[in-house]
Write a structure and sequence with these properties.
Helix content: 55-70%
Largest sheet: 5 strands, mixed
Number of helices: 18
Radius of gyration: 34 Å
Distance between the termini: 125 Å
Strand order of the largest sheet: 3-2-1-4-5
Order of helices and strands: HHHHHEEEHEHEHHHHHHHHHHH
């Protein structure tokens, strides 16, 4: 009892003494950094540096000019530089024009130092059906490094006739002071742009070339125009369209993919203007064949009437599998030609010969449709790429580049008599260069 009383008294005394002692007030420390940021202003030099950086960001990321007055940008700058005053649109335009002028002069300096220039040109349309032309330049600098520049992308208001396109090319070459240096212009296979390049008298005709990847796709598309293959492509496209327009079917497809251990992926629709899209459509469809059949036979997802309309027979599936095997080498070849960092012109003829030799030779077990496909592709490739050399043919830039490429210098892909023609032609070119250099300037 005494012990409890003693404990109570001690606790009471302690609480009383602690309540009588005044508590120590904490001194609030001021945030010197925030005070400094609030009071100090952004110097004119610092402001101009930020203005220039914003102009470069807009140019590099192709942002709209209104981005600089957006809420997100103002919030970002309030954290990075609270006292920075956002640049006005007119001031930003002036800095963008100055940046363009500066870069343009640097590109011109590079082009002046080059002895020759190769160009690429393409006409295209935006989603709003506005026509544009893009022209690029490709050189080898003094350090033997390939460099590429986009010279112009501007809207075409006139019709795309050969005369108008010729004028566009000439104006661009004159503006960039390379009209006397252009030795080749690579285009697609459209007649108007090909005729436009041919009409430029100062460009050697044998050095001008069409895009190899585009020519390859034209060969493939022409070979797929048989009735049976066209019917299969339409059926596959219709089947994929069903899944694209039905969320229930698509969700069930993904669910079945997960259940059966397939990678979760969507079906791919083909597009006439997209290279290799028929191959990618058929390949993805065939990989998911079991999953698709499982969804179509599920009456809670697909009605019997719709299933009947979307049915692909066993013979058609076999033909799809064969087409995938035939189209895959062209898919790989197109990918190689498009992803090559430097000019792939030296690879075109060797790779085409290999594809023909290893993948397009007729087999005894081929059905008539496949035999016709192989034959048509070979004929198209031979015609468009001049693979069958005759006496009347001239040595093209593709022959020369393959010979000068260490990978193909033996010209094993060419007939023996053509190899000698190419070697002699290159020797004559070298002799002409030596004679030209020895002439007094």
């Amino acid at each position: 009892m005494d012990a409890k009383l003693c404990d109570t008294q001690i606790s009471t005394l302690t609480s009383t003494s602690s309540s009588t002692v005044p508590s120590r007030k904490r001194r609030r420390r001021n945030n010197l950094t925030s005070e400094r940021n609030d009071t100090s202003s952004c110097s004119p030099e610092r402001t101009e540096i930020i203005h220039q950086a914003v102009a470069k960001m807009v140019a590099l990321n192709q942002l709209p000019i209104s981005f600089c007055s957006s809420t997100g940008f103002n919030y970002f700058m309030s954290i990075v530089e609270p006292n920075y005053k956002a640049i006005k649109e007119e001031a930003l335009k002036k800095r963008l024009y100055a940046l363009k002028t500066d870069i343009k002069e640097k590109v011109k300096e590079k082009l002046r130092s080059a002895q020759s220039v190769s160009c690429t040109s393409d006409c295209w349309s935006s989603l709003s059906q506005q026509s544009y032309i893009t022209i690029g330049a490709h050189i080898i600098d003094t350090q033997w490094c390939p460099i590429s520049f986009t010279l112009t992308t501007h809207e075409l208001h006139e019709r795309h006739t050969a005369e108008n396109l010729t004028q566009q090319l000439e104006n661009t070459f004159n503006e960039w002071e390379i009209d006397k240096k252009v030795i080749a212009v690579v285009t697609d296979n459209a007649k108007n742009i090909v005729n436009a390049v041919t009409s430029l008298s100062y460009i050697p005709e044998i050095c001008s070339s069409t895009c190899a990847a585009h020519s390859l796709q034209l060969c493939i598309n022409n070979s797929l125009k048989t009735d049976t293959i066209t019917e299969i492509i339409q059926k596959c496209s219709k089947l994929i369209g069903h899944f694209k327009h039905s969320n229930v079917a698509m969700n069930e497809l993904h669910k079945k993919q997960e259940q059966l251990g397939y990678p979760k992926s969507s079906l791919l629709q083909y597009c006439k203007t997209r290279w290799n899209s028929i191959y990618t459509m058929l390949d993805r469809l065939f990989i998911n064949r079991s999953v698709i059949l499982s969804v179509l036979t599920n009456r809670s997802i697909t009605t019997s009437e719709i299933c009947r309309k979307l049915e692909i027979t066993g013979n058609h599936w076999c033909l799809i599998e064969t087409l995938i095997c035939l189209l895959k080498p062209f898919y790989v070849l197109t990918t190689v030609l498009c992803k090559e960092n430097h000019s792939p012109v030296s690879m075109v003829r060797p790779l085409l010969y290999k594809v023909i030799e290893n993948h397009l030779k007729s087999r005894d077990d081929d059905i008539i449709i496949i035999k016709d496909f192989r034959k048509t592709v070979i004929n198209e490739l031979t015609k468009r790429f001049n693979l069958q050399f005759e006496i009347t043919n001239t040595i093209s830039v593709s022959h020369i580049s393959s010979f000068l490429d260490p990978r193909y210098k033996d010209l094993e892909h060419e007939p023996i008599h053509v190899r000698e023609e190419i070697r002699n032609h290159v020797k004559n070119l070298l002799n002409d260069i030596i004679v030209h250099q020895q002439q007094p300037q």
